[in-house]
Amino acid sequence: MMAAERGAAANTLDAYRRDLDDLQDCVGDPLTADATAVRGWLARQAQLGMAPRTQARRLSCIRQFYGFLVAEGLRRDDPSADLDSPRLGRPLPKYLSEDEVKALLDAARALEAEAGVLATALLETLYATGLRVSELVSLPAAAVARDPSVLVVRGKGGKERMVPLSDPARAALAAWRSVRDAAQPKSRPSRWLFPSTGVSGHLTRAGFAAMLGRIALAAGIDPGRVSPHVLRHSFASHLLAGGADLRSLQQMLGHADIATTEIYTHVQEAQRLKLVTSCHPLADLAAKRRE
């Protein structure tokens, strides 16, 4: 149902499968488990030190599972109906400064030969568009075949959206296309923009993350602070700081709910608060009073 009716992505299906396997390991047969057993499963998540956000995601999966069973007439009751979701904090997204992003791009360009062209194309495109890493690595070659100014992306749930491409990103992609096309066998060229010899046929998320870690080291940035998703956050934070409106940002990021995009306004609020507390003429006086 999740795959056929809701168009869930492969990564989502894998996560749900793992969640249901974990439920089965804890309660036995989920088809006959009662509310007490399911409540015990949820309590076990907290005992194992699982983050509240992960617990909430797992509970969402279980609720959808039992809702499906009830709708299909396979159960008469929903043992997850009365379970309370764990309280979630709202952590601000981690992002890099503009200077740090520039350092990453400089380090990518400094890589030798094909590796540098590939890394530059990936980073320029990610920072210019804010794509999810799965969307980036699985771009088809046809998406940039004619040097488009707008990238058409198929995101979560199979929904398409259009994201503008900056001139530096277009130039980096054009350079990569030349290298890629020259290396492709003419008898059987890959359909992917970033091909690989792996099972998927294209660069994997893990492969790109590892590449990004090496580039971060070369740029003098702690690799633990750098990931594809951090670059997506950086794109959004920098765009909003530059005056972009929230609705346009929502569309570019592919968020179904604008409330998800609104978290970036909290980043700006935190920046303004830090500015006031460090630069206001009375800031030193207030600090001395606290001492």
Automatic annotation (TrEMBL):
GO biological processes: cell division; chromosome segregation; DNA transposition
Job description of the protein: Site-specific tyrosine recombinase, which acts by catalyzing the cutting and rejoining of the recombining DNA molecules. The XerC-XerD complex is essential to convert dimers of the bacterial chromosome into monomers to permit their segregation at cell division. It also contributes to the segregational stability of plasmids.
Core-binding (CB) domain segment(s): 1-70
Record keywords, A-Z: Cell cycle, Cell division, Chromosome partition, Cytoplasm, DNA integration, DNA recombination, DNA-binding
GO MF: DNA binding; tyrosine-based site-specific recombinase activity
Domain of life: Bacteria
Assembly and oligomerization: Forms a cyclic heterotetrameric complex composed of two molecules of XerC and two molecules of XerD.
Protein name: Tyrosine recombinase XerC
Tyr recombinase domain residues: 91-278
Active site per database record: 132, 156, 229, 232, 255, 264 (o-(3'-phospho-dna)-tyrosine intermediate)
One GO CC annotation: cytoplasm
Location relative to the cell: Cytoplasm
Record-stated family: Belongs to the 'phage' integrase family. XerC subfamily.
